[in-house]
Amino acid sequence: MNTSIAHYARQLDDAAVCAQAIAQFPSGSFDLEQAYVIQRTAIQRRVNRGDSICGIKLGFTSRAKMLQMGVHDLIWGWLTCSMLKEESSSIDLNQYIHPRVEPEVCFLTKRTIDRPMNALQALDCIEAVAPALEIIDSRYRDFHFTLEDVVADNCSSAGVVVGSFSRNFDALSNAGVHMAFDGRYVQTGSTAAILGHPLRAFVQASRLLAASGLHLPAGSLIMAGAATAAQALPPETHVRCDIYGLGRVEFFTATETP
Q1: Sign of CA dihedral 51, 56, 62, 67
Q2: Which end of the chain is more exposed for a tag (fewer CB within 10 A), N or C?
Q3: Model pTM greater than 0.85?
C-alpha cells in the first residue's frame, strides 16, 4: 500500500478514536480517487479492531449542496455497527469532536445490491424504510475541508439512529420533515430535497457501488442523504425527527465528565 495513503488513513482514524480534530491536509495531497482509497483503508482499521460494515451513506444528495461544493455527483461512505445508536437512547457527545445532526431516510435491503438498478428494480430490493437521524462529525478542525478531505474522512459519518421500519413506501414522496430540539423546531423540509425522491438515492447507491466494483449484502442499511441542513448538537437535549407518513425517531444527548 502507498505509505501516504496509510498515513492519511491512520491520522483520520486516530482523530475519530480520540475525538481530537486534525488540520486539513495540504492542498493537492491526494485526488478524489485516492480519497476513496484512504476512506476504505481507515474503515478497514476499524474492521481489524472488531467492528463490521452494515451499510453505506450518501452525501450531496441536495442539488444546492452539489452546486455549493462545485461537484456534479454524489459522494458516499461506509456505515459500521459501532456507529449505530439505539433509538431513544442517551448519546454521550464526548465521543465526538463537533457533532451535528441531520434528518434522513434509511432503507433496509432485502437483496444483494450488486449492479446498477432503475427505480422499479430498486423498489424490489427494499425490505423496509424508516426515519433516521445521522450524526456527522468532521475530523478536521473547525469543520473545514475540501471535497477530497471529506471523502477521505468517510463523508463525516459518525453515528446513526434509526426509527421503526415500515413498508409505507408511498409516504416517501415529498413528505414533510420536522427536526426539533426539546420540542422546538430547528429544521423543517421535505423528503423531496433528497434528489427529488429518496428512492432515487437508492438507485444512485446501486450505481456508485457498481462503479467501484463493490456489492452490498442483503440486510444492509442505505442512508439516503439529508432532507435539511445539519444542526449543531447541544448537550442535554432531546432530539426528535418526524417524517410525515413514516414516523418518528429520537434520542437524547448527554455529556459525561471525562
Answers
A1: positive
A2: C
A3: yes
Per-residue pLDDT tens over the stretch 205-244: 999 999 999 999 999 999 999 999 999 999 999 999 999 9
In 3D space, the residue among 120, 118, 121, 122 whose CA is nearest the CA of residue 107 turns out to be 122
pLDDT tens by residue, 148-191: 999 999 999 999 999 999 999 999 999 999 999 999 999 999 99
Q: Which sign does the torsion angle of CA 46, 148, 135, 244 carry?
A: negative
Check: CB of residue 133 under 8 Å from CB of residue 231.
Answer: no
In angstroms, the CA 60 to CA 94 distance is: 27
- Write the CATH number of the domain with boundaries 3-254: 3.90.850.10
Cell 426515519 -> residue: 131
Q: Cα dist. 226→15, 62, 172, 187, 191 in Å?
A: 24, 8, 14, 11, 8
